């Protein structure tokens, strides 16, 4: 499985922990995030992840910032991206099952690192249910204005 990960300064420690966890499991992970705790602009780290997901260069994306709102808003500008904010495991499961999310957005200021790792595992292992949800997902992307 291939994954792109990005983060701003609020998510650096989370990113390193998740990256180590995923590499130990044998996943191929591309790190687009900052490796520092110095203040940065999150869109600079979101766009490469969202582009990889949008263009099917990777299977999934992971984005981490303080609240996860900014990274989700930025990623969801891309036509083929469905980025969901997840703060508990149950939401993580539903965002995959019902919304076929392809990027998980983690709020570092509102989760703990072990919880974030568990959510990533859930996100990567949960399948989209399809069925009645497929019709809804098909209506998400804007095709014309």
UniProtKB/TrEMBL annotation:
Report if keyword Signal is assigned: no
Lineage of the source organism? Bacteria, Pseudomonadati, Bacteroidota, Flavobacteriia, Flavobacteriales
User: Any signal peptide, and if so, which residues?
Assistant: none
Entry binding sites for D-ribulose 5-phosphate:
8-9, 66-70, 99, 109, 132, 136
Family in the record: Belongs to the LacAB/RpiB family.
Its encoding gene is what? Answer: rpiB
Query: Which one of the record's GO molecular function terms can you name?
Result: ribose-5-phosphate isomerase activity
* Protein name per the record: Ribose 5-phosphate isomerase B
Q: Which residues cross the membrane?
A: none
């Amino acid at each position: 499985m291939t994954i792109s990960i990005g983060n701003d300064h609020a998510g650096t420690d989370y990113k390193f922990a998740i990256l180590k966890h995923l590499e130990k499991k044998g996943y191929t992970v591309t790190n687009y995030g900052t490796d520092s705790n110095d203040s940065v602009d999150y869109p600079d780290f979101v766009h490469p992840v969202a582009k990889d997901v949008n263009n099917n260069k990777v299977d999934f994306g992971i984005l981490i910032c303080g609240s996860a709102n900014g990274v989700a808003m930025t990623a969801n500008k891309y036509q083929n991206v469905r980025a969901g904010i997840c703060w508990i495991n149950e939401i993580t499961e539903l965002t995959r099952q019902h919304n076929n999310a392809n990027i998980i957005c983690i709020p570092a200021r509102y989760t703990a690192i072990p919880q974030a790792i568990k959510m990533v595992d859930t996100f990567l292992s949960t399948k989209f249910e399809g069925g009645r949800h497929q019709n809804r997902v098909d209506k998400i992307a804007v095709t014309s204005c």
